[in-house]
Design brief:
By secondary structure, the chain is mostly helical. Among the domains are: 42 residues, no CATH class; 153 residues, MetI-like (MetI-like fold, Orthogonal Bundle), CATH 1.10.3720. The chain is 72% helix and 0% strand. The chain has eleven helices and no strands. Helix 7 packs antiparallel against helix 8. The longest helix is centred in the first third of the chain and has 35 residues. The model has no long low-confidence stretch (mean pLDDT 83).
Length: 283
Amino acid sequence: MTQVLEPETRETPPAQPTVTRRNRLTGGRVLHAYTWLVIAWLTLPVLIMILFGFNDTPGRYNQTWEGFTLKWYGRVFELDELTRALVTSLLVALATMLIAGALGTGIGYALGRYRFRGSGLLNLVMFAAISSPELVMGASLLTLFVSLGVGLGAVTITIAHVMFSISFVAVLVRARVLTLDRSIEEAAADLGANPWTTFWRITFPMILPAVGSGMMLAFALSIDDFVVTNFTAGTTTTFPLWIWGSTRVGLPPQVNVMGTLIFLAGVLIAVAASIRSRPRRRV
């Protein structure tokens, strides 16, 4: 007796509705449009600043467009008070970058590598310094300096900027240390390297991008800080303080030119860092 086998019938999956795909396309376009609107909104003040650096205004009231000129780039350092304020801000920011970079790197490395008594409290203090309002930090530092009888000036500004910049450097370095491969350091120790040599030859090059990012962030936070600086400056005038004081009588075009140069310097540093971080092609 023979049995006839019928061919198997495969069930075809139901076709995906085109509505889902259309919703995805529509949602993606809306998200892209929203992203570009946010980018345009954020860059609009910068573009206006750059534009009014070319304004052919006859005086300090650089508020209406009078015509195109390049003369302000040749006279950017014509105002002595503005130039001194910019130099002060650059020196304070440079000192803040170096001091906060060194101290923040040590704190971040210790928090990321070791577990010790008080590490949780130190973590809490780091994040509290980041999240606390600048008004509170500036007022507290002013009270501290006055109580100790310390004269306000460039030194107190630098101390204040280091105080709120250390946390940013430490957080970045700690995050990088937590992702390190300990086997590389152990291999260096097996080959006879002492802890100091292992740190400088192996560990530090691996955390160097985080250290550099933290130092640049400290520089950026310092050079444009106003609130904390206003509490701890005394008679010293920085670039943001000079701009705030001159708004009552009109901003000269040199302010826009200096702001444009600082912005372009930041863009060049970001582009150079991005190019350097790209993986190299193997030949």
